[in-house]
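Question: what's this shape?

___
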Amino acid sequence: MGCWTAYLVRLDDGSHWESYEKYGRWHLADADDRADLVERVLADGRPIDGAPNTARACHGIALDLASRDHWFVGWDADARQITVRHDELIADALAHATCLVSVIGADATLTHWQLSDTIVPLLAHQGESLPGTLAAGAPFPLAAEDAVTDGAVIDLPTRRLRYWTADTVSPGLAARVEAAWPAWKVERLAWGHLGHLAAIGQQPDGLSMTDAELREARWDEELITIRNRARDTLPTEPRRLLPPRVRVVDRL
């Protein structure tokens, strides 16, 4: 029969998934490896209803992507305040996120979640139930540009979904997203994290990569100039949105 590997994953939204692979791959030291595993489990596995079916597995690994006790203190929904330890941007370093989702509420509130998912498959899989699923858990501070690789802005009052990613999105996957969000206006945002910030009316100061950081990432000068021009001319959200406050305790 051979040896099967069990992969058990708890996602940021609290859901549990399982997948099985003969022999299996164990390269999970880097964030990219873990993100690849989560994508494989969502694509090939199934949600767990009850106990996982691990009887045929001789070994396995469990990834808990919902735990953040080491940096997160609490969420006061009435005061709309997130309390974290040490630094306002600590989640960027310790949440191991790849994806930023911002939700605009009916009362002009703005709330963010940092997830370990890949945004387009997530949108296609969860559909318009995603905001409710996210709201069942505590939100995150707004992620900086160098902490995430894709994201989405979900505008509940206007039923407008805007997403961004550096990945190629096949026509079939794009069609699945639109089908999962019926009666929504679905768009792909230009300029990635910069476009995300503009869509929520957030200034990029302290959140966007500096020219020096872009040069370290091997951007050429012409592309940096084009990017900065886009940053200064992107249309921004005209409504005055109300983001959560971030309170820091045990500051270093």
Observations:
- Helices lie at 31-44, 90-94, 119-126, 130-135, 171-180, 192-199, 211-216, 221-233.
- The first strand starts at residue 4 and ends at 10.
- The chain has two domains: 4-64, 72-249.
